[in-house]
Amino acid sequence: MVEHAYEHLNMPLMRDNLVSDGHHPIKTARAFVTLEDLLRLEHRASGFSFLPRQPVHSLLAGRHASRLRGRGLNFEELRHYFEGDDTRTIDWLATARLGSPHVRVYSEERDRPVILLIDQRSTMFFGSRRAMKSVAAAEAAALAAWRVSSLGDRVGAVVFTDDGIVSIKAQARDKGVVRVLSEIAKANAALAAPPTSSGDERLNEALAAACRMVAHDGLVCLISDAAGEDDETQRLITKLSAHNDVLAIFIHDPLEQDLPDIGRATFSSGVAEIEVDASAPDFRLHFGEERRQWRERLAGLSRKRAIPVLPISTDRDVADQYRELIGRRQAQRLASGRRS
């Protein structure tokens, strides 16, 4: 009951960019992000990578099946084996048929489509520290778009809100990035108006749109709090991950992990509201347990489908979190620490 209510409801104080510590309101969370803000992040999109070759500490490294595949390979030709060729490329069927060693030659695709799924529903319009979840998601998307574009990949997106989805075909260079960021900024600004629906079904609609946009050898990044996740969500993610890399960037706020004692409070989404006594120990204990089970369900989905999950918190700079999770600077620091 608590979990179901909380997934769909936001504190009115958060809509005013305020949070109370139980005694005094403190202005902290940034409510909106502009296109100019997202464009400026181009210069901070470095020091991390979504490629399969990762530093040892990275969440995308290791011996697990969740390691990213990277770009696809195009078959170029079948030719005679020459001394020095990698023996693993020998085509044994062709060798037996033709009577002499032959190898298959492949070239790596020069680019790949990267589809960002950016959640800008009302469930994301919540934040207790630095920024709203919707702002953190927009920043995470902008940094990812600038980074993969700088490496030559094409960037597209599905931006989803309570009212619908907007699909943007993958394009190369800055043109593709700017189109994506423009739609994100537009959707983010629309959160100023009260929602007219819960938008639960939009998560699966966005995943279905991604299935239509990229058939194989792409990278799909879901940037969301995963509100509304159900069996259909798992089916769509399974379908996507069969022939693509899928990465989940899970946006969360510290207040969602540990509800503070703020007395009686009204949670509202604009279309419904509920009043609770947040000072009651049993209520906070039940709330914490519900959130723990929710996180475990998402972690189980990640393990079962071999999908990496990057947890991004609203209370810290997103670029810094990327570098810690999938960056190289931290790997160098760890290496130097082992040598000293």
In summary, what is this structure?
This protein has 340 residues and is α/β, with parallel strands linked by helices. It has twelve helices and twelve strands.
Note the main attributes of this structure.
single chain; 340 residues; alpha/beta; Rossmann fold; 6-stranded mixed β-sheet; two-stranded antiparallel sheet; 12 strands; elongated; disordered N terminus
Q: What's the structural blueprint in terms of helices and strands?
A:
Elements (H helix, E strand, L loop, with lengths): L1 H7 L3 H4 L2 E3 L4 E3 L7 H6 L32 E8 L11 H7 L3 E7 L4 E7 L13 H18 L3 E7 L4 E7 L1 H17 L12 H12 L5 E6 L6 H11 L3 E8 L1 H4 L6 E5 L4 E5 L3 H25 L3 E5 L4 H9 L2 H11 L1
Parallel strand pairs: 5-6, 5-8, 8-9, 9-12
Antiparallel strand pairs: 1-2, 3-4, 6-7, 10-11
Helix pairs in contact: 5-6, 7-8
Rg, Å, rounded:
23 Å
Could you give the distance between the termini?
Answer: 52 Å
How many strand units? 12
Low-confidence stretches: 1-27, 53-68, 329-335
Q: How many discrete domains?
A: 2
- What's the tally of helices? 12
Q: By CATH's scheme, which homologous superfamily of the largest domain applies?
A: von Willebrand factor, type A domain
Strand content: 15-25%
Instruction: Describe the main β-sheet briefly.
Output: 6 strands, mixed
Q: What is the highest CATH level, the class of the largest domain?
A: Alpha Beta
